[in-house]
Amino acid sequence: MNSKRCQMIVLCCVAGLLAPLLFGQSEPVCPEQVFVDISECPVALDPNRIAVDPYEQRMCCLGWMFAVAGSPWTWDRWYCDPDGDAMTLTSDTGVLTANADGTYSVTGVSSAPGVTYVTMTLADQPAANQTPITRKGTFAVLSVPKNRSPALCGGQPK
């Protein structure tokens, strides 16, 4: 009897460990929030334009990208909540597309060379009696001038 009981306990433990691997996780797996060091950016970013994350109480740079002034740019990333709570995602610049699978895109056009700062805000909507948590971060679009075509001329130089 004890041997059968031990076998059942072992079987239940193994099943409990293997079930998430075989059938997927019951909760979303979210990596930790990333804080990019703005000193690694190839151009100087204004630290006063980078949002302070209200949860961590520190500057949150999400990264940067290059774009050609006057051409469209797209920033593709993801968002998630480890508790599986509903979320609200907003962007202060560009057109935001938030997808049900946790991915999002922000698209825009930088009209002139320079830096465009885009601040993202993510807020969860937890269960009753839980405090909502808001996260903020900024990414930078580094717009460079459009490259002009060189001229290839025939004939003798003057």
Task: Explain what this protein looks like in three dimensions.
With 158 residues, the protein is mostly beta strands. The protein has 1 helix and 9 strands; from the N terminus they run αβββββββββ. It has a domain at 38-144: Immunoglobulins (Immunoglobulin-like). Strands 3-9-8-5 form a 4-stranded mixed β-sheet, with no helix packed on it. It starts with a helix and ends in a 14-residue tail after the last strand.
The chain-level structural class is mainly beta
Q: What's the SSE pattern? A: HEEEEEEEEE
The coarse overall form would be elongated
CATH superfamily heading of the domain at 38-144: Immunoglobulins
CATH-scheme architecture of the domain at 38-144: Sandwich
Low-confidence stretches: 5-22
Overall average residue pLDDT = 85
Q: Which labels suit this protein?
A:
9 strands; mainly beta; 158 residues; three-stranded antiparallel beta sheet; 37% strand
Short description:
This protein is mainly β and 158 residues long. Helices cover 14% and strands 37% of the residues.
Write the layout of secondary structure elements.
Layout: H1 2-23, E1 52-53, E2 58-59, E3 61-68, E4 72-78, E5 86-91, E6 95-98, E7 103-109, E8 114-125, E9 134-144
